[in-house]
Specification:
- This protein is of the alpha/beta class and 652 residues long.
- It has four domains: 193 residues, no CATH class; 135 residues, Aconitase, domain 3, CATH 3.30.499.10; 115 residues, Aconitase, domain 3 (2-Layer Sandwich), CATH 3.30.499; 155 residues, 2-Layer Sandwich (Aconitase, domain 3).
- Helix content is 21%, strand content 22%.
- A five-stranded parallel β-sheet has the order 31-28-27-32-33.
- Helix 7 runs parallel beside helix 9 and helix 12 runs parallel beside helix 15.
- The N terminus is likely disordered.
- It binds iron/sulfur cluster.
- The site of iron/sulfur cluster has 13 residues, from helix 5 and helix 11.
Length: 652
């Protein structure tokens, strides 16, 4: 084999004398490989499959940005009872991404026994150590999190927060006389036979296993624990009871506390909850607390005399937790996020496993940072086509929940795929993932892509939160308990009728239902894009019924007050139309709350709402009826006083 391992565009090869085990990338036939084979870096390596006799194994490589090649080694290994290994490595080469892409960057060579540190793109560093004789740790690549070693307990392995590895291999003989491999910032997993869904891959990574299967109970390491003013005091109580009054949390950098529910109310017990959070944060030294007030020694008290519309929060306040989490840089692909709130599943939009838990589990996590969970089965929702004007992501999720029922995904993962999902911006993915729980799902999840990374990286940078993360990507073959294609172009404005989110009807058929109130807000429907859609309908018109607008975060307030349309801010357009807009971003009436909560349904009435849940009593009075709909449909209905298809107000 010549010294040259790869030329422009070449990124991976496996040396000659290999058995019939390699298949690189899709479309490359399985065959004995005599030379390094190439694929295009523009299409990151995802799959390498190889077979030995009847045992299929799989190695997947993702997100490759650099490469390291060994040569002249004598790797040989056998797994299982006749385990054997031998890989003296004489030299190693690291190839930077630019070079892989065909630039003239020099090939970096190392000499046996020496370490060499190389900077890779994206602030990654590669440390190469070669060793002439030792069979282990011949090569290490450590781009912050990654660590690649030749040798060790398998042929070679990549350690990146517990991703690995080859323990499942049996009776596989691999010889690498010219040898391979490895891309920095790569996820490599080799598992027996079964390919995994996104949720399974994240859980496997979080419990340090090669693979997991639905139904399996595993302990996972937690990346982020979220709590808020309603559940935080209870969670703290469990933690102190079980771990002691003076106990310290397992990792103060992984706890995010966001008061958001019962904030702008004169109810003294609700105000006190925020103070309990503040005391705990001060005691533990927690960095991620988004307080309502700026004084860390102070007490929160809502001033009812100022009314509900004028802002009463300080500079740290973040608004509704699920919308605030990504805005403040706490959602990262590939991570495990637990929150003491059922709509924690919204963060699945970012390609992470995110789900709601109870105070007891959360108190336990505060103490040890782990949780025992059962791996859910996965349902795939494959989206094709494009939404027509007037139809929104909210209509997609209402349609799907109507299809499967409000318990149709109980303890399952709802995985969203297809060109229709890929084309969605993050707000839309959040809307859909948010309502996974309305079908009973354990979590909802989208595969991360460049849209995700751009969104996440920008907010991490703006907020200085943890910058490294380890995404997982779609496997080519996955096992689903349910798999259905939805054509987005066929969907129409949809409404979930009283009394649950699965009661699906088309808005165009509901004109006879008169309304007393319209409401736009919440984590699901209080984002900037939701208000822009709403404003598109009501601009220059007047609402006919009481209409309440509650932005999800202070950031949304700021955007609506700075985005101009035809010389007016969007905020002004909304208020001119008669919408009661509050600057006090919070959950407000989405969850009912104390009697003085802004927008609360304090008596029997019909309300059309851009929120996510409509069980009896959800927004206040149990006698009220809540109709869930998109911001477009809520806006059109606010203008007419009855449920209205928004396409009546939109030009084709
Ligand atoms: S806005 Fe509503 S659904 Fe979202 S966290 Fe608050 S109460 Fe829950």
């Amino acid at each position: 084999m010549a010294d040259l391992f790869c030329q422009g565009g070449d990124i991976l090869g496996i040396g000659k004398n290999g058995h019939d085990f390699a298949r690189l990338m899709r479309g490359v036939p399985s065959q004995p490989l005599e030379h390094f084979v190439a694929s295009n870096l523009d299409k990151p390596l995802r799959d390498i499959s190889f077979r030995k006799q009847r045992a299929p194994y799989r190695m997947s490589m993702e997100h490759s940005i650099g490469g390291c090649f060994l040569r002249e080694n004598q790797m040989q290994t056998r797994f299982g009872r006749r385990f054997k290994r031998s890989f003296p490595v004489r030299s190693a080469f690291c190839v930077q991404r630019d070079e892989l892409l065909g630039s003239q960057a020099p090939l970096v060579k190392t000499t046996p026994g020496q370490q060499q540190s190389i900077r890779l793109p994206g602030n990654h560093r590669t440390v190469i150590t070669t060793c002439a004789q030792r069979p282990a740790s011949a090569v290490e690549i450590t781009p912050r999190l990654n660590q690649f070693s030749a040798g060790g307990s398998g042929l070679w392995h990549l350690e990146k927060k517990g991703i690995i590895h080859f323990p499942a291999i049996r009776k596989l003989k691999i010889e690498f006389p010219q040898a391979i491999i490895c891309f920095s910032n790569v996820s490599i997993a080799l598992s027996h036979s079964d390919f995994m869904t996104l949720t399974e891959k994240i859980i496997a990574k979080a419990c340090g296993k090669t693979s997991v299967a639905p139904g399996e109970n595993v302990w996972v390491n937690v990346d982020v624990l979220l709590t808020h003013d309603v559940c935080g005091p209870g969670t703290i109580g469990v933690f102190k009871r079980e771990f002691g009054q003076n106990a310290k949390v397992w990792d103060k950098n992984k706890i995010v506390i966001i008061p958001d529910h019962y904030i702008f109310t004169a109810d003294s017990l609700s105000n006190r909850n925020v103070d309990i959070l503040r005391d705990f944060v001060r005691e533990q030294g927690l960095p991620y607390f988004y307080d309502v007030i700026d004084d860390p020694e102070g007490h929160w008290k809502f001033d009812a005399s100022q009314g509900q519309l004028k802002r009463q929060y300080g500079s740290q306040f973040a608004g509704v937790c699920h919308t605030a989490l990504p805005a403040k840089g706490h959602t990262r692909p590939g991570e495990i996020l637990f929150g003491t709130d059922s709509h924690t599943c919204m963060a699945g939009a970012f390609g992470e496993f995110a789900t709601g838990i109870g105070n007891t589990d959360a108190g336990f996590i505060l103490g040890i940072g782990k949780l025992l969970i059962k791996v859910p089965e996965t349902m795939r929702f494959y989206l094709e086509g494009q939404l027509a004007h007037g139809v929104m992501a909210k209509d997609v999720i209402l349609h799907v929940i109507g299809d499967i029922g409000f318990d149709g995904a109980t303890y399952r993962a709802m995985q969203w795929e297809g060109p229709g999902a890929d084309a969605m911006h993050m707000d839309d993915r959040m809307t859909i993932a948010n309502m996974a729980i309305e079908a009973g799902a354990k979590n909802g999840i989208f595969a991360p892509d460049q849209t995700t990374f751009d969104y996440v990286d920008a907010r991490i940078k703006a907020n200085g939160t943890k910058a490294d993360y380890d995404p997982v990507f779609l496997d080519r073959d996955q096992k689903f308990i349910y798999d259905k294609v939805f054509d987005l172009s066929q969907l129409e404005p949809t409404v979930a009728m009283h009394p649950d989110p699965g009661q699906r009807e088309l808005a165009k058929n509901l004109g006879k239902i008169t309304l007393d109130r319209a409401y736009i807000g919440s984590c699901t429907g209080g984002k900037t894009s939701d208000f822009l859609a709403f404003a598109e309908i009501v601009q220059g018109k007047s609402v006919k019924i009481d209409t309440f607008g509650v932005p999800a975060t202070p950031g949304v307030v700021e955007e609506l007050q700075t985005i101009h349309w035809n010389g007016s801010t969007v905020w002004q357009i909304l208020t001119d139309a008669g919408v009661l807009m509050t600057e006090n971003a919070s959950c407000a009436a989405c969850l009912g709350g104390p009697l003085d909560t802004f927008g609360r349904l304090n008596k029997s009435m019909n309300c059309i709402s851009a929120t996510n849940r409509n069980f009896p009593g959800r927004m206040g009075s149990k006698e009220s009826k809540v109709f869930l709909a998109s911001p477009y449909t809520v806006a059109a209905s606010a203008l007419t006083g009855h449920i209205t298809d928004p396409r009546e107000f939109l030009s084709a």
